[in-house]
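Notebook p. 47: complex prediction with 2-acetamido-2-deoxy-beta-D-glucopyranose.
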Amino acid sequence: MSRVITLLVFIGPLLAFGSSEDETPICQILGSPEFPLLSKEGVVMIGGAFSIHSKITQPPLSFTEKPTRLTCSSVNLREFRFAQTMIFAIEEINKSEFLLPNISIGYRIYDNCGSTFTSMRAVMALMNGDERAVGKRCSGQSAVHAIIGESESSSTIVLSRTTGPFKIPVISHSATCECLSKRKEYPSFFRTIASDLYQSRALAQLVKHFGWTWVGAINSDSDYGNNGMAIFLAAAQEEGVCVEYTEKFHRTEPEKLMKVVEVIRKSTARVIVGFLAHVEMNDLLEQLSLHNITGLQFIGVEAWITADSLVTPTSFRVLGGSLGFAVQKANISGLEDFLIKDFWETEFNCKEKTETPCKESQDLMELKDYDDDVTELRYSSNIYKAIYAVAHSLHSILKCSKSQGCENTVNVTPWQVVESLQQVHFTIKNGEQVWFDNTGAAVARYEVVNWQRGSDDSVQFKPVGYYDASLPLGQKFVLKTEDIVWPRGKTEANIFIDSNIYIDVSCLTICYFE
Ligand SMILES: *[C@@H]1O[C@H](CO)[C@@H](O)[C@H](O)[C@H]1NC(C)=O
Ligand SMILES: *[C@@H]1O[C@H](CO)[C@@H](O)[C@H](O)[C@H]1NC(C)=O
Ligand SMILES: *[C@@H]1O[C@H](CO)[C@@H](O)[C@H](O)[C@H]1NC(C)=O
Ligand SMILES: *[C@@H]1O[C@H](CO)[C@@H](O)[C@H](O)[C@H]1NC(C)=O
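Predicted complex, structure tokens below:
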């Protein structure tokens, strides 16, 4: 007996248009409403989408009744810090008498649980507004003035494509795919981080600088990894660097990962360029550790080179001596205290009193006493800058001044915010300047870091140079070679000089044909 199974695809709660007696359309939510994980009302509203939980489970489908809600588990501390930083910046501006004086700012932060599927629901909810208010008149206005997120390029693409037709500005703190620079496709997308165009080319220069002309290349099979690697390969060819192999895998493909490990094991290249998201790097690290493949020189990207989650008692054998580009650390006064103290006092006390069920975010309480990651706050400063960028653009649209206040009666359209964001240029409290270039991105500034052991034997990401695209030619890229510690603790780069032997006929052929 064969049976036809209809696959139902839910794309978030949509709005249906009905008609009241006087023919004014009335909005109604189709499906159950989606609630933010953290929220507070204000005149100006900023949305946020992060993967605060990283696992999603769908109860088995019966096909006879409406599917039950997806459940999210496994808290991602790093992403949770982003949400906290967002609230920190909003509260700071809310209190400021210079920026948006007398305007209260609120937020709606959604958890996408690491899935583009939930992400879609969150975006819909952000655009629709308060979904409890069923039967409202359709205002045609977005519920938020801007959305901050997401962390990964692929989910940011979903977000920007969905909000694009409504011209709602999206500002990402960490999506670096060069593909997001296409202004025609993503006209309302901004980021407080640079496109990988610079990082990929700088990687090729770094490899060339040390005379490593025979390298392996591995990337995440994602928008981030594929685009970044493609630019690196083109730049490497220009620099005369030969690539022995290029392999890729995705976190959902364990068999492919095994193949990659086999390729690494059999290859002769001692230097590996890893254009990987930290999830894939973590998978690769586990396998290399298991197979005792150690002592290779890893060259890394901003996504994993300073990821605390990669530091385990055994990982230094594999990744010690790694060299790569990191997002610069920024010291934002007051943030640390907020993350480990103030946040809990304000956010979770009130939660228990409201009717919003506290149960769903109960597991977050376990993070309350977790404070040993606050030293590696790199992306958090990008969140901070993104919130300030929104505030500065609204400040100018609403023609605010300290003495006159703001014209808060003006109805701000999302496109006005987009146009204003393109013009902002301001300085945050640590002295850093913020503006967006004509692709909506921040200027490329990286720290070059090296995995070393500190005097207390802990793993440290030691700064050994920088790359700053805003400086004149000849000063952009600086390396302090004498500070670098190489794999297996050697302090000279020339352990790799023998890899030059491989610039032979076969290498030239590979370069020639690629
Ligand atoms: C912003 O300030 C107003 C007025 O002081 C206050 O009621 C509101 O709770 C504040 N909002 C946030 C997000 O701090
Ligand atoms: C890896 O090395 C450890 C210690 O040196 C050894 O005990 C283990 O058997 C090795 N594993 C493999 C797969 O070679
Ligand atoms: C950060 O800045 C604050 C005040 O501006 C200062 O007291 C603190 O020492 C700085 N921390 C670091 C790590 O530079
Ligand atoms: C802001 O609000 C406070 C309290 O309502 C008021 O005293 C002050 O004059 C207002 N400032 C401006 C610039 O409107």
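Notes: Residues 40, 42, 90-91, 94, 104-106 surround 2-acetamido-2-deoxy-beta-D-glucopyranose (ligand 1) (CB under 6 Å). The two ends are 53 Å apart (CA to CA).
Next step: compare against the earlier run before touching the bench.
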